[in-house]
Amino acid sequence: MCGRFETKPNADGLLKQLEQLHIDLIVEKDEAVKTVNIAPTEKITGIRKQQKKYLLSSFQWGIKFSQSSPLIFNSRMETIIEKKFWMDSFNKNRCLIPMTAFYEWKKEGGKKVAYRIFLKTEDLFFIPALYYINNENTYSASLITTTPNDFIKPIHHRMPVIFTYGNAVSFLTNTVDQNLKLCIPFPNPELMEMERVNLAV
Known about the structure:
The chain is α+β, with helices and mostly antiparallel strands. The protein is 16% helix and 36% strand.
């Protein structure tokens, strides 16, 4: 699961880091977004591909199909495989959400403690997501989650799929079958790190 995250670099700082993807990135929407403690319903920054262009766009975190429908801010890989609507989105409406860390809560001594989780060797990593465009042309996105690897398992029963600079862009260009093989628990748990934080959320 991923219910809070951070993307600390913003504006020029983020664009500088994204140069490591080696793509021509066009800034489509230059909206102010939070950089820490980002929560569902808030604006987030993501990368999507439109024909041959890579666009840095703003999305609302969480897909909501109507006023009465639930907010879907995480999409389970199992559901994507089983449901035609989500598989169609997985085929056509993919994006990447850059992060510097995400947060999970672990029960300790009868209370939940927040941990900041990040990669030791990457200044930035990427969570694959699905986006949706409503009738008002508003873009929203849902992060893709999977079963936990050995690092996350003691903390939570779900984790976001994680890509690094080396394989992130391929998610936007791959076939569905290729991406199904990519969207697995992060295969290098030894590269993950966490630190206890005082996060009032």
